[in-house]
């Protein structure tokens, strides 16, 4: 069984104080059910770099996992503006989002750089959450599978099979991110199924079946249940709806009685 993963991507939101406040509210919602939740799911938050230390403290004794929104591939050096895996690990960061569409499109990170970051994260025993997804124009031109699978392959090329079984993939159609236009469960499942085939090709069936594939793009408490019911949707990467404890907690409980 793949444990579901519900990851909150805070993007460039929440100061250390605000982050601490959100974690307190989230723990008030989730801590009492932590044993039931832990049976089949994991919860993760990915704050901005400077908010990570405060959130790390606020998470003491919690099963909520801590992630970052990017990572450099070197441990240290002349890379102005970047943060390394050893630095993140000082605060208990175990996961890192890599290749988010905002990194690809606004900051022009290409497949090469993304593959290097992914390899760096794996080399430091962090769990990469590799994001892939097509633009609206690409979908309209029937290019969805080609684009998504090319991004995936570029990332997987940097993921040695024997050390990358813990990799997570997030399918985030660019047209769904922050727009309120969620992919339908069928649209998402179709792409997730193709990603699953590529993962089995790369890792072999057993290991390929263990990789979680998250859906991201305007996930809300109202649409998560039908998404999570799909066979290859193993969780969600949540932006806007992860900034409020109540909505994120409801998403985390998706599909539970
Ligand atoms: P959204 O963002 O939930 O606000 O659409 C998702 C993401 O970019 O990871």
Q: Give the SSE string.
A: EHHEHEHEHHEHHEHHEHEH
Instruction: Please state how the strands of the largest beta sheet are arranged side by side.
Output: 1-2-3-4-5-6-7-8
The N- to C-terminal Cα distance equals 19 Å
Specify the CATH homologous superfamily: Aldolase class I
Give the averaged pLDDT, no decimals.
96
CATH class: Alpha Beta
- General shape: globular
CATH architecture: Alpha-Beta Barrel
Biggest pleated sheet: 8 strands, parallel, barrel
Number of domains: 1
In the CATH hierarchy, the third-tier topology is known as TIM Barrel
DSSP strand content:
15-25%
* Ligands, ions, cofactors: 2-phosphoglycolic acid
As an assembly, this protein is single chain
Radius of gyration: 17 Å
Indicate the percent of residues in helices. Answer: 40-55%
- Tally of helical segments: 12
Describe the structure concisely.
With 257 residues, the chain is α/β, with parallel strands linked by helices.
Structure characterization notes:
It is a single chain. By secondary structure, this protein is of the alpha/beta class. The protein has one domain (4-252): TIM Barrel (Alpha-Beta Barrel). The chain is 42% helix and 15% strand. It contains 12 helices and 8 strands. It has helices at residues 16-30, 34-40, 52-58, 85-89, 101-105, 111-123, 136-140, 144-156, 185-203, 205-210, 224-228, 245-252, and strands at 4-9, 41-46, 65-68, 95-98, 127-132, 168-171, 212-216, 235-238. An 8-stranded parallel barrel has the order 1-2-3-4-5-6-7-8, surrounded by 6 helices. Residues 9, 172, 177-178, 216-219, 237-241 line the site of 2-phosphoglycolic acid.
């Amino acid at each position: 069984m793949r444990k579901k993963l519900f990851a909150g991507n805070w993007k460039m939101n929440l100061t250390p104080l605000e982050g601490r406040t959100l974690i307190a509210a989230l723990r008030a919602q989730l801590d009492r059910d932590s044993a039931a939740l832990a049976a089949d799911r994991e919860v993760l938050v990915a704050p901005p770099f400077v908010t990570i230390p405060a959130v790390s403290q606020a998470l003491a004794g919690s099963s909520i996992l801590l992630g970052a929104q990017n990572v450099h591939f070197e441990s240290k050096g002349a890379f102005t503006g970047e943060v390394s895996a050893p630095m993140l690990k000082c605060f208990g960061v175990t996961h890192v989002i890599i290749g988010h569409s905002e990194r690809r499109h606004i900051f022009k990170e290409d497949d090469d750089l993304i593959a290097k970051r992914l390899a760096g994260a794996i080399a430091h025993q962090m769990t990469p959450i590799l994001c892939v997804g097509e633009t609206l124009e690409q979908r309209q031109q029937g290019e969805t599978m080609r684009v998504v699978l090319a991004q995936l392959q570029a990332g997987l090329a940097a993921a040695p099979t024997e050390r990358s079984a813990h990799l997570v993939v997030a399918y985030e159609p660019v047209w769904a991110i922050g727009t309120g236009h969620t992919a339908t469960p069928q649209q998402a499942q179709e792409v997730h199924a193709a990603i699953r085939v590529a993962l089995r090709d790369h890792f072999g069936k057993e290991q390929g079946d263990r990789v979680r594939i998250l859906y991201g793009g305007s996930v809300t408490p109202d649409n998560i249940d039908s998404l999570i019911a799909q066979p290859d949707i193993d969780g969600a990467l949540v932006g806007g709806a992860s900034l409020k404890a109540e909505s994120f907690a409801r998403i985390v409980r998706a599909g539970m009685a």
